[in-house]
Write a structure and sequence with these properties.
1 helix, about 5% helix, about 140 residues
């Protein structure tokens, strides 16, 4: 199955809409880089969210829109002043539209070392079914 047919079949669409006027936090929001893998039983979404842990990640599902939000607070250093900053701290936001072929009741997530993994099990109707051929 090609990547194009997979995304059409499961209707997982990324929406990279993070408008500053819609945010209530005075901090830049990044769209995390994401990879999506498909197995026979599930879709796995892997997102890079450096600095995030289970306490500052908020994942919601409403009307088949899966939203990932992570709120990262900058570290404060007491013993020295910052001379150069190339790494920018900010929040992360990403949304995906899920089709009815995802079993939304059994979605789960894990995070380790700033990498979020979402496991989206396929509904029974979306799983590949083997049909046996009989001799008549």
């Amino acid at each position: 199955m090609t990547n194009e047919s997979t995304s059409k079949e499961l209707e997982i669409q990324k929406e990279e809409v993070v408008a500053p006027e819609e945010r209530t936090r005075d901090r830049r929001a990044f769209v995390p880089h994401t990879d999506i893998y498909e197995t026979d039983d599930q879709i796995v979404v892997v997102a890079d969210i450096p600095g995030a842990n289970e306490e500052n990640i908020d994942i919601t599902l409403e009307k088949n829109i899966l939203s990932i939000n992570a709120y990262i607070e900058p570290e404060e250093y007491e013993d020295y002043s910052l001379a150069l900053a190339e790494y920018e701290i900010g929040d992360y936001q990403r949304t995906f539209r899920l089709s009815d072929e995802i079993d939304t009741e059994n979605i789960n997530a894990s995070v380790k070392d700033g990498v979020l993994r979402l496991f989206l099990p396929k509904a029974a109707k979306a799983k590949t079914k083997k049909i046996s051929v009989q001799v008549v």
